[in-house]
Design a protein that fits this description.
Blueprint lengths: L6 H10 L2 H16 L1 E2 L1 H6 L6 H10 L6 E4 L2 E5 H10 L11 H10 L2
Antiparallel strand pairs: 1-3, 2-3
Protein name: Transcriptional regulator, AlpA family
Length: about 110
């Protein structure tokens, strides 16, 4: 099984739980980790371009804040990302018509 737990948490758990309990915790964490997105996942899927944009969206309340699972590890459950994507527009807005073009077309009309 790959090393899915943060190193500090791994060391602390090794000291306080039995090996069997540790394996169960690690398996549960891995399963939960598969259902979550980290920043690199959001970026690779084109959901966000930069950490600054992500922070701005979170601060504005446009993006879910996610869950801190370690001192520097934030994840977003797949359900939250799906909900966010459903609220986003699916197509670009049409460019506004220029006033001059309307006036010119009205002048040419019979």
């Amino acid at each position: 099984m790959p090393n899915v737990l943060p190193e500090a948490l791994r060391a602390e758990l090794n000291e306080i739980v039995s090996p069997e309990t540790f394996r169960r915790i690690e398996a549960a964490f891995e399963k939960k980790n598969l259902e979550n997105f980290r920043y690199r996942d959001l970026k690779s899927r084109g959901i966000v371009d930069s950490r600054a944009t992500l922070a701005r969206w979170i601060q504005a309340g446009d993006f879910p804040p996610g869950i801190l699972i370690g001192p520097n590890i934030r994840v977003w459950p797949a359900a939250q990302i799906d909900a966010f994507l459903r609220t986003r527009p699916t197509a670009a807005k049409a460019a506004p018509r220029r006033k001059a073009a309307r006036v010119a077309s009205q002048a040419l009309a019979p």
